[in-house]
Amino acid sequence: MDKPQEEQEVEKKIGQLQNRQKILLNKKRSEEHRARTHRLIGRGALLESVFPAVMEMEGEEVKAFLIALSRLPGASAAPDEARKTEDGGSA
Predict the structure, then answer these.
(1) Is the overall model pTM greater than 0.70, yes or no?
(2) Of 3, 15, 76, 88, which residue is the least packed, with the fewest Cβ within 10 Å?
(3) pLDDT, averaged across the chain
């Protein structure tokens, strides 16, 4: 009870397409991971350039420092003001 040749070819093609899908999904995840890593490294470098003291801090100390900064008066408006300045508007 062999399957007809055409059915075997279709099943083979389905398997090839499923494998190709897995390869493409892995490639997409890898590219997303690479982009995230690049973004995190860039932001970490900016943090260290603006606040050199964080280079000597451990992770939890940096977190506490950033939380303390976020609680300063006007901190919640700072990101909006920075975007306006960057977009060429008046701060």
Answers:
(1) no
(2) 88
(3) 92
Averaged over 77-83, what is the pLDDT?
86
Residue 3: CB partners within 8 Å, gap ≥ 6? Answer: 11
d(CA 65, CA 57): 9
81 is written with which tokens?
């003001």
Is residue 90 scored above 60 in pLDDT? no
Show me where the domains of the chain are located: 1-50, 57-91
Distance CA 56, CA 3 (A): 68
